[in-house]
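@channel sequence for tomorrow's demo:
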Amino acid sequence: MDGELSEDLLTDWAYRAHYLTTLAARDVIDAYYGSQPQYSYFTGCSGAGAHGLQMAQKYPDLDPAVADSFVCMAP
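structure tokens (generated this afternoon):
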């Protein structure tokens, strides 16, 4: 690393890391139990609720997200 922020680093920090962690966790569950989980949920409120909505929009292959009292930030 050269100490500079890149678009990939910012994307990972903003949202992609949670998605990739979810995929890795599903693989670990599959290896241990012999099958993928039937359901996996994301729940959060306020900033985490906004994050859940963002993930649901960017990654429609994820199961439902429960977002309560989310914060919307205008661009």
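heads up for whoever presents: The longest strand covers residues 65-70.
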